[in-house]
Amino acid sequence: MARYLLVANQTLAGDRLLEEVRRRVAAGPSSFHVIVPNTRSVDVAPLPGGPVPPGSAHVAVEEEDRRSTQIAESRLHQALHELRAEGVQARGELGDPDPLTAIGDALRDEQFDEIIISTLPSGISRWLGMDLPKRAQRKFNLPVTTVTAHR
Fold first, then answer.
1. What are phi and psi of 9, to 5 degrees?
2. How do residues 95-133 score in pLDDT, each as one tens digit?
3. Distance between CA 84 and CA 89 in Å, rounded?
4. Dihedral sign (CA 36, 2, 149, 141)
5. pTM for the whole thing?
6. At a CB cut-off of 8 Å and minimum separation 6, what does 141 contact?
């Protein structure tokens, strides 16, 4: 059975990613482990009209981080539901906010035959900007397929 590590966040529900999964499933027995890097907010813009009250920026960052985690969890659960509804053997989890670290954490726990990274299009993708697919391939010595979502 081929084992795939699928890494995605905003593009998790994309048509191109689902097409890629379907191709793998059609090629033979396979399983997918979905990692959603739990990307967090790091910057908070000051409120208009004056300085930020002491401690309120920290509270706003924590609230935004909680909201980001809820969104990531929702994406993960929806994607797993959709994959399983198609008969795909899939499981998943939230990962480290840094996608390269999230991949490394998953690989520490088990072995995969390939990494599939789903990203936003070039120009807006932070992951492509940081050259995540090539960095992952070099660091983990596994084939990496990049799936780019439609604009």
1. -140, -90
2. 999 999 999 999 998 999 999 999 999 989 999 999 999
3. 6
4. positive
5. 0.85
6. none
